[in-house]
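Worked example 2:
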Amino acid sequence: MLTEVLPVDPASIARAAAVLRAGGLVAFPTETVYGLGANALDSGAVARIFAAKGRPPTNPVIVHVAAKSQVGQVVAAWPQLAEILAQRFWPGPLTLVLPKRAEVPDVVTAGGPTVAVRIPAHAAALSLLRAAGVPVAAPSANRSNRLSPTCAAHVLRDLDGHLDLLLDGGPTLGGIESTVVDVTTTPPRLLRPGLLSAGDLEAVVGSLQRPGTSVTERALPSPGMLPRHYAPRTPLICVEGDGQTVFDALLASGLRVGLLRFGGDGTTGVATRTLANDPAAAAAQLYAVLHELDDRNLERIVVALPPDADGWLAIRDRLHRASS
């Protein structure tokens, strides 16, 4: 059965909220990417997310709420550090990891003792959350490990027929996922870089523990920590520098090759794309461009990585995981 697609308007929001309350799955836009939502307090509904995505049970999902007053539905403790970060960055692309309430099903948290929660900064998402009246578990609306969706067409490409309703709010503005910070540790731990940079956070809370490179298959504290993630179907190769040597060698071998650069001059006449030399602008374009290259029947995509600098940490993280 094809997924019902509705525009974002009051009637559609009301219908989508009813679907969520009834245990259904709704894809909806946020300021980062499109999410695949279910009632976070309904274990059967959340299990449908994992089935639709083919998501491993060790990978938890983020819970979205409409207001800070609703955090207590899923969180057992609210430390001062969480209050400071929420005051500064909510609503927005910041996810906080906190001790969970017993009412939160284990399927949401991969059986772990903490829950990841945020308030999105997107009018349609907030309207849906208010109308639903329940916390909504929502990872990105795509098959597990694949490119995250930044428009409704991307959602349908992966999940048409696997969810009940899709709210089409047009392209998302942020382009990559939220930053995830564990505030149960001192100093707080950056689990996933995202739209908010580590520098943004450290200006408010002081030092952060930076993310490590190793991960096991035990229950993870946050999504986005698996070695392979955010990947196109086409094999992706990350290189430092301008990527031209690798690109030319692959072309000379007879392969169909795409090239993605940041702030450089793209070669004409082939599948090349050049993103802005600014982290926020590049993040907004990243997945959409990778989706476009992925649809060109290429055999390789070469990515000339952006600078190894704090502002580019999230984009480099996504690209390294995509090429794993």
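The longest strand covers residues 94-99. The chain has ten helices and 14 strands.
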